[in-house]
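re the bet — no i am not wrong, look at it urself. input seq straight from the record:
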Amino acid sequence: MKEKFNKFYKKTLEERRQILKELNMLNEKISLDEEIGDTMIENYVLNMEIPLGLAMNFSINGKEYIIPMAIEEPSVVAAASNGAKTLGNIETSMDRKYLIGQVVLENVEDPDAAIKILEENKNSLMDLAEEHSQSMIKRGGGPKEITFKKFDQGFVCIYISVDTCDSMGANTINTILEALAPLAEDLTNSSALLRILSNHAIESVVVAETKTPVQNLDKDIEKARQVARRIEAATKYANIDPYRAVTHNKGVMNGVDAVVLATGNDFRAVEAGVHAYTVRDGQYRSLTSWTFDEENDLLLGRIEIPMAVATLGGTISINPIAKWSLQVLSNPDAKELAKIIASVGLVQNFSALRALVTDGIQKGHMSLHAKTLAKQIGVKEEEMDEFMRSLLKADKVNLSLAKGILAKMREED
C-alpha cells in the first residue's frame, strides 16, 4: 500500500481519489447530509466546508498511519508529511483516559467539616455514581476516584474521575453528577451551584517521543548539527517568553486541531485543556521539548499533552466524514487516537521549528500562496509550471504580480 502513496502530493485530485478507490478507502465523495446537519445544531442552514487532506509517512509505535487532517491553512499537511518522514518512528504512552466531573457546593458554612463528612461518606457517593453509570462499567470503564477540595468564599468542590472508554462520556458524567448533588447537599447542608464535566484533562495525558539521527536534518553533518542546536535553542526560548510560547504552541495545534476536527472531536475542548495544561506551574510554556544529544548525534523530541478524545458516540457516530477519517486510521480506540494526535502535534512543531531556524517560515508558505493565486486568476494546468517558476523568482508574491506574469506569458504565446 505504501507504494501507492508515493509522491501523493504530485498527483492530481482525480488520481488521488482513484488510488483511494483502488484501496477500498473511498468509494464515493463523502459529504455531510443536510438532514444530519439539521440534527446536529439549531437553526441549521449550510455546511461550512474545510479542506481535508492526508498526511503521509507517519510511523507511531512501529505502526504506519495515513493521517486525515481538516484545515484551511496552507503548508500544514505538507509540513506534517515531510516532518514525519524526517523524524521516523514516534513512541507514545498514555496511562489512562479519565474525564473529571465537578459538583460545586456553595454557601458551605464550615468547609473543613463538610469535607470531613464527605470523606466519611465517600463509599456511598461512589456507590451512587456506579449505580448511574452501569453501561459504562459494563464496557470496562466507570467512576474511579472521588476527591474533595475547599475554596474561599464558602465553596467546596467534589471531583469525580471517570473512565469513559472510547466515548467522550459527557452525558454519563453529567448524569452521575446530577445523582451525586442531592446527597452532597444533604450531607453538607449546602446547595449545589454547578454539576458539570471539566475540560481540564489532566488525567488524559499523552507523551510522544522521537529520537532522530541528526543526519536526517541535512546531508552536511555540520549543518545538520547546527540545525539541531538551533531547534533546541528555539524551544528553550519558548519556555522563557510567553509571546513566543503562544505561537510555538499554535504550531503544535495546527496539527492537533486538524486531526481532532477530521475525526469529529471537540477541538474547542481540546484547545482549552491544552492551554490550561501549559500554565500548570504558573507560566505559559512550550508543549514540546527538543534536545540535541551531541554525544550520539541525535535530536530528541518530546511532547506531553492532555488529549481527551473519543471514537464513539455523539456526533462522531453520525458524521460520515468523521467515520471515514477513523476508518483511514484503521478504526483506533480512543487512547490510540489520542496518541496519534499527540504525534502529529510533535511532528508539526518540529517542521515549524526547522523552517524557522533555517530558511524561515515564508519559503514554504510562498509556494503554496503562489498556487492559491494561480487558481484565483485562472492559470491553466498547462501553464502552471512556467507560471510557478516565474512567480517564485520574485521577492514578493502578490495578486498584482501574478496577474502581470500570466498576462505576459499569454502575450508571448
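see?? The chain has a mean pLDDT of 93. told u. also The longest helix spans residues 334-357. so pay up
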